[in-house]
Amino acid sequence: MNWKRIPAVAVALSMSLTxxxxxxxxxxxxxxxxxxxxxxMSRLTNSGSATDQPMWCRVQAGPAAAHGYTGPxxxxxxxxxxxxxxxxxxxxxxxxxxxxxxxxxxxxxxxxRVAQEGGYEGPVDGIPGPNTWRGFDKAIRIQWFxx
Length: 147
What we know:
mainly alpha; two-stranded parallel sheet; globular
């Protein structure tokens, strides 16, 4: 994996993946996008997995970066990624718990609420399954990247 740091602003101006121009939020300027994420940001997966790296690339470069995450968009969520997600969910009024970077039932309920915007029709019970993750990824792709 190439860990070369590439400013998100430069990527926003010039990145084209599989023929699609991927717009990066202006707030992502403090983050950088790894080569892996550059190469896979527009790859649509249907894994419905909590460990889907392209989904996490989008989350890190989009809503997490817009809400305080300054680490790399590398597809591996850690405490700081989760803090960015919790801030994003708080701003959307989908979460009111602590911004501690530790996902729990209420963080997952917020993710399920976002997932509803991506077609998720299951319960908002704080127990994410494959349909939650597919809906969450779809909502992120639409809201942040126009995919």
